[in-house]
Amino acid sequence: MARRKPRIRRRRLLGSLLALALLIGVAGGWVLYRNSYDLREQRVTITGGAQPLDGVLARPEGGDGPFGLVVFVHGDGPTDATHDTFYRPIWESLAEAGYASLSWNKPGVGGAPGDWLDQSMDDRADEAAAAIAWARSQPGIDPDRVGLWGASQAGWVLPKIAERAPGIRFVIAVSPAVNWLRQGRYNLLAELADDHAPQSRIDAELARRERVNEQLRKGATYEQARAAVGADLGDLTPARWRFVLRNHTADATADLAALKVPVLLVLGGRDRNVDIADTEAAYRRLLTAPGQLTVRSYPAATHGLARPEVEDGSLYGLLVAVTSPRSVFTDGYLDDQRHFVATTAPVGGRR
Q: d(Cα 255, Cα 259) in Å, to the nearest integer?
């Protein structure tokens, strides 16, 4: 019997390894399944604007169309066409309502030509208007059912696009700000509050911010601002300073007042980037046509409309993002957008 023990141990080890391999295979298959979407994605080159754009056109899985189209406008930062895959659950929800989605790498991202830091909000609106003109000529796209989706910084771009691309049917504005400088001040104070900063630190940070804003008001170059305020510029690079200098006067008030199409305003109650009370008040004051404005607020959601426990950078959040990406977003967020587009510009009819 003693001579059989090594063989028994080997069999047990082999069995354990096989079980582990099976578990890994099942887990891997589950992850692949949860990261697959009912979409047909096509890499496209969007022409007609200041420069070619590297984009993705995501159509519904079934049928030949013509499909309505939602054009995606990114927030701040070096964003690629899929927003690191996080757009795909939104695209899928819109596809269920019969809509394709169009998005593109920001200039300079993923090898695309140009540099997004060289753009003003007007430049971004012109870029999107040119992309819409291109998309309206694509097979399977209904040129009469085109809407806009934009997040955060896109709040300064969306109403400009609607003016420059006639026939836009609706706008979905996710966590938009109204005024650039007010938004920055709110964000600073929200972060200090999260840090439980004493009043002395708050006063010092507001004073530092005012010194930087004074340089913006003067139109100072990066070198002039660095010489004047030194460390107050923090980690701002020359390119980022030029971007802020170009855009710090952005205010959506006048453009919103001219907007005539239905708008879905989406807000997260735990937004630390944008003052949602200020945004909602402005949208309600400016968008007054009967039925024009629909507001959806999600008290537990963050700026990105994610669940807080997912967006906090924890291991749990990473696991959810990898294994169940649709669950990243707060409950109701995807369904409400699908319902809005399906009822605002339905297939075969006009509202």
A: 6
